[in-house]
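Subject: mismatched residue count in predicted assembly?

I count 605 residues in my input, but I want to confirm that the predicted structure covers every chain. Input:
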Amino acid sequence: MQKRLFVKGNEAVAMGAVEAGCRYYFGYPITPQSDIPEYMSRELPKLGGTFIQAESETASINMLLGASASGARAMTSSSSPGISLKQEGISYMAGSELPGLIVNISRSGPGLGGIDASQADYFQAVKGGGHGGYRLIVLAPNSVQEMYDLTVLAFDLSDRYRIPAMLLGDSVIGQMKEALVPHPYHPPADLPAKPWAVAGKLGRSDQRIVKSLYLGDGELEAHNWRLHEKYRQLREREVRFEAIVLEDADMIVTAFGSAARIAKTAVRMARESGLRVGLFRPITLFPFPEAALRQVTEGCKKVLCVELNAGQMVEDVRLSVDRDAEVRFYGRPPGAGSLPTPEELYAQIRKHYEA
Amino acid sequence: MTTALQKVFDRPVSLKDVQTHFCPGCHHGTIHRLVAEALDHFAVQERTIGVASVGCSVFLYSYFDVDVVEAPHGRAPAVATGVKRVHPDKIIFTYQGDGDLAAIGTSEIIHAANRGEGMTVIFVNNTTYGMTGGQMAPTTLPQQKTSTSPYGRNVQSDGYPIRMAELLAALDGTAYSTRVAVNSPKNVLQAGKAIRRAFQYQVESQGFAFVEVLSACPTNWGMDPLKANERVGDEMIAYFQLGTFKDVAK
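Triage response: the counts match. Full output below for your records.
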């Protein structure tokens, strides 16, 4: 029988990372994700790994850059204000084609905001939060099990494409406890080696250089086209989503992460009262499941996008849906007391369904 | 009787056989050579990883024949920390200018030193931002005119030049901290010894080693190379005293 544990979402992230072979963690304490560094500070030394509580978020992302450039599986984690501070290093990692995991257990903002669940970092995560026009692989778990599974997947995708990966959770998913089956990790057989990682020349004739500066005529454009080709490949090959009772749906609710968790209950309530409503949940926020969403919204009259913010993913939903489908939105700016209940979402579903 | 000619002076093998982009009279070339000589001395070129910073020295990988990671501005000590933790048996060095290390990267250098990270830091102090065109640096001397201190550095409003070698020597994690100059043959020889000692600390796994090198930037100082050399000797050394402020293995 498979082992079942009862753990917090944040602990599941840390457990998944360790299982996936991550032995280097660099971070700075911030609520509501401190369970992750606490777990790593306890477990990594036992495994011969390295835990560093860095002097700043900036230092921790650059330590990750250095460890990734050295070929190791490595990670950092933080929450929204800390993720803002990391953007410089994330842009450099993207430009240097470095893998690595950045976990954002996001909280409400802007500024210091609050510590409540928030999805207001969607734009920052999926549109390239730092300078220069790049993308991250962005995965959005909606359960403790997915916190573990998607952490493992993030390392594999990040290594395969040499693109930094972000796990975008929030304080609900990070702090809640659920059953977890910690599946053993088997690295994909076709996972590429890292012949680009610095190691000292060790008798090699070639010099390994990890960099993002390209000054020669045409070099930077060619470099950027190479990055964009990888983004295209991600869109083609790595889209993941969950679709629930869409077949006969007149209205499809779109939501990710913890909002999707609440919406799932609301959609079930709607079904029980006879409304033909389904749920479409993007798991990869980048690559966004554009084609899949277009397909499932064919013949569907309405799409209701639900988010824990004032409207961000809805822009990608509008760009993706079938042109005959009308897109509506429901969301509230995050903060204490603004997390919608299933009843509240059910009432919204009914309202938009009927009018 | 004939005597066979013998080559007695050559390029260090850790340096590539290429021309540099540095301005006439710039000391980066000299300092690059001293670092390469130290790598050759310990025969560690094959297991050395350099961390380049932002500024005139960003092209470290064009001149040193070693693996190199390019760090964001000021973050080289943090990047080097990540590299060193993955490769504890390798020789890791950063090469940073004064804007990089003593302004935007102050936090990273202080904490890398304080953790006693096993790395060698070469800090090139020329009292100005070279790459961006000669703006005021944290090391710009009082009254020194730069493109952003056109009336001269006013310590009342701009603060004082930072003495990094002394500052870092005060940290328990620092094993070696010294200041040298490369304005005269005697000082170049002394600088070479200091840089070698800083790498010796790492070769022998004895902790964080820091070498501040006073150097000239004739282009941005508006001087010819000889005048610039004189300024290092006359003005810079008067404020930034040469000497070793910590050498724990001694």
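The first helix of chain A runs from residue 9 to 19. Marking this ticket as 'not a bug'.
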